[in-house]
Amino acid sequence: xxxxxxxxxxxxxxxxxxxxxxxxxxxxxxxxxxxxxxxxxxxxxxxxxxxxxxxxxxxxxxxxxxxxxxxxxxxxxxxxxxxxxxxxxxxxxxxxxxxxxxxxxxxxxxxxx
Length: 113
Hints:
The protein is built from three helices and five strands. The protein is of the alpha/beta class. The model has no long low-confidence stretch (mean pLDDT 90).
């Protein structure tokens, strides 16, 4: 089970020490931890006003819920969407799965989403 990444110091540590991995529509920062499993989302003002930023975060949370059963615990994950791209749940989940699979954080073999 993944919990939310809330503390500012956790975000700062992940930005400083974490590994970045990229896809067409998002970037993920991965900070490996022993037993800790947390996820956070960062949406900048480049995406628009607060309504648009909150929509992007809702889409990202919904997409992560779809792939969460397949993600190995033991890492802090921070997802950063790229600006100027419309984000749908299915496409975002597919990109999240691609990036996490590239980093070896997916349980099963490649399957259809």
